[in-house]
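quick one, two chains, predict together pls
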Amino acid sequence: GQQVMQIPQYQHVQEGEDFTTYCNSSTTLSNIQWYKQRPGGHPVFLIQLVKSGEVKKQKRLTFQFGEAKKNSSLHITATQTTDVGTYFCAGFMNGQNFVFGPGTRLSVLP
Amino acid sequence: DGGITQSPKYLFRKEGQNVTLSCEQNLNHDAMYWYRQDPGQGLRLIYYSQIVNDFQKGDIAEGYSVSREKKESFPLTVTSAQKNPTAFYLCASRRTGLTGELFFGEGSRLTVL
């Protein structure tokens, strides 16, 4: 079936270090979205990428969508303790629903 | 405030009992979704609905049932046929179409004793 994979599963960084999570789909995506879930919370939308090769920035976060629309990445520059949480990518498929990756859990050590 | 409300937040049930989780939204969204999240794992789709009186099975629909009698409401019943029901259940809604993000409720944590 359709799958979305994410690596790494866990990432521990020192505050101030950079962080990147990668998302790969087995099929071409209409678009991809990224969500953040704080410990004990619910997923919150971060951004959507639609165009091939698209790059979007939100302050210290940079999101990329691959040229083939099958992969994406999220990069955080100079992590802060407020960045702690699990980051999920979600690929929009079949024109009806999203397939979520397993997430990357980020820990930031002060 | 517009949003999506799930209840109850915590629920305990004995084996063999059915339980219904409530999900209500006032965002005027046509599409609604139920996801299951297990510790340390991603979100798996149980059921989704694009319009009132219509719904489709997701990847893990066995042991669950839903209804969509009103646009605002999409309750999920966890039946006794669900073999491992203990999990965190998330309801979400969005406007239909290619774009538009998912808005999630705060979730319902079900524990089967």
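Chain B has a mean pLDDT of 93.
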